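Note to self: user wants both folds in one dump. Writing first protein now.
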Amino acid sequence: SFTEINVNRSALREFDGLLLRKVFPKIFSSSLVQHELVGNYSQLFRIPGSEPDLEPYMLLAHIDVVPADEADGWDAPPFSAQELNGFIYGRGTIDNKQSVMGILQASEYLLERGYTPRRSFYIGLGHDEEVNGLYGAANIVKLLKSQGVKLQYVLDEGLAVLDGIINGLDGPAALIGISEKGQATVKLSVSSAPGHSSMLPRESSIGILASAVNRLEENLMPRLFGYGPERSTFEHLAHKVKIFICRVLERINNTNAFVRTTTAVTMFNSGVKINIIPSYAEVFVNFRIHSAQTLQEVLELVKSDERVKVELVNGFDPLPISSYDEQAFGFQIIKKMVQSMFPQLTVAPGKTSDAFLLNTDTCESLVIFGTDMVCAETEND
């Protein structure tokens, strides 16, 4: 997927007709399974359970990937699925085809053996998640709401077993996501009189905007550690942490996101000719918003120089924090499954930075974890 309106439709059709329906015939032909296409390319399955009074859950994954170019340093062509030294190389092998294939393969396996679950469940495979899911996930939500469906929990891609990521943590830990950061894409722009490089102004549009960007990168968003779900993460991990202070986390790229809203300058556009002072410059900045902060609070902190125009391109507040106590069915069943497969691990709640489009009107609880263990979860329930 390139943009919300520019997706590879021919590849999506081939993935459906030439791959999924041939590799997983049972899930498409079983009289037990209800299947429909949503938004032309997203897949929605319902597998009814033997006890219809039990609230259903949903397994989510997405079909699309972000663009990739072999010139970016790939060891194998990014769409070749080439196997090297026991690993499959390809865009989407981690984000998020492993979930798509894991869910469908587990379901196919169980259907072939005549299995019927006690609790009904849904499978949602979005086709445009990488560009905000407006035609895939959003339409799945609308459909479920129109049918009066209320989900017990949703299992989506996200956190995993982490080893060596958190500084000072003794051994690996499994983090199960209970929320997601908010997100904002903000455009900063400067307009000024054009000029020539032989008679340059004191400050150019590029210079003014570069200073604004430098201020953003130099002045990090406020430290909010302890005001979101990360507090519970480290309470669960405390017995395994050799050294832990907030300043240690924020100095490391991998863990700075625990502490605050992150700021990433991603696109800078200006100029048309090497000897012309451009009249306009723009930059796009992506923020991943901490659970204790709002989108509006981030926008207020971005404003500084009156010559720099600040525009919100798109964004949303952090998601509500799902329950993870002993009565939280979704969290506890995933925790139990992880511990049965990796008994040496400590399991803790966490949060992710990925965008997600299932709202709280449809879903009681969001559980975010790698779904290559789905078969065990389906059999247990």
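First done. Writing the second protein, which came from a different request thread.
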Amino acid sequence: MASSLLSLGASSFPSTPTSNSNSNSKPTKLGIPRRRRRRDFLALSSTSSSSERAAEEEDQNKDDKPRFNPFGFVTDNPSSRTAIQLPESPAEDGNVGQMLYRIEDKGREYGSYVRSGKLRWFVRETGSANSRRGTILFLHGAPTQSFSYREVMSQMSSSGYHCFAPDWIGFGFSDKPQPGYGFNYTEDEFHSALEKLLEVLNITSPFILVVQGFLVGSYGLTWALKNSEKVSKLVILNSPMTVSSPLPGLFKKLRIPLFGEFTCQNAIEAERFIEGGSPYVLKNEKADVYRLPYLSSGAPGFALLEAAKKANFGDILGRISSGFSSSSWDKPILLVWGLSDKYLPLSEAEALQKGNPDAVQINQIEGAGHMPQEDWPEKVVEALRKFL
């Protein structure tokens, strides 16, 4: 039995090559050529390396997948992701101090500070007092600033107009007094402050008024109704015009106790509002300017909060709707309307035109949203030139 097992074991291995064999491999004790063992080792090593590479690629893919981010609620805005998300080394980029340092000098094109009484306004100006075609005053809405008019007013001054675009008190780079200390953010106070500013700017003869947007934009229209003798022509860009005008969620949230205080301190609320009403995403260099005041301090947010709380939107829109009807207004009105506005449909403009067909004309801009002066300034300029 033992001899048969030994015989079987011996026959299981290749025979030892003779001196006449062509193989250069030296046999081992087991009878396996060394070269074959080396090839087997290399194949095994190659298989092992492939497995390791596959494992590394799998780990890398896992690293590329989005992970939980506790600050995700402020990073869902595409234009804000690079500025708000926290990097691995906060000192290099991403924290508020670094953001302010990077953007603090942006967005002041054509602008300077003008003191009117106790208030300091930031006013953009293009052209000169000797401009042959008259003066244009551009008024922005909430929660934005006069920066949105920079391209339009630059091109209009090239056409011979003297242009002004102030930041309303509480917005942009203008003063933001604490409520109850010199300014309470009511409609009457906004009107009074605007009249004093016009005196300082020496705007005396009837001028062309351009208005856009909600809240303080609407205050620009109610000011025009009270001072129609100072306005030669009126241009309205995407603004609420009827009592049934939908109110964006931002202003609804601002009027909710406690929740409003939280909402107003969101540093990216302005750019989020702009992008929410537009088919486009703001480029980072533009978004930087709109967020800058809200990053600098809490004052702009509280100013917006106070103005929203004290605004009687129903009453304001009722006066606008009736005030610009044919029985009350006979000055030429141009409605420049971005058709991709996600806040205000074209029916707003059509309702105003229906109430005063002789004075009102509409210029529709395809591809522009709630702020056509930001989305497509060239087409706004074209519409203004034709109208004026």
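Dump finished. Worth passing along: Residues 1-39, 65-76, 81-94 have pLDDT under 50 and may be disordered.
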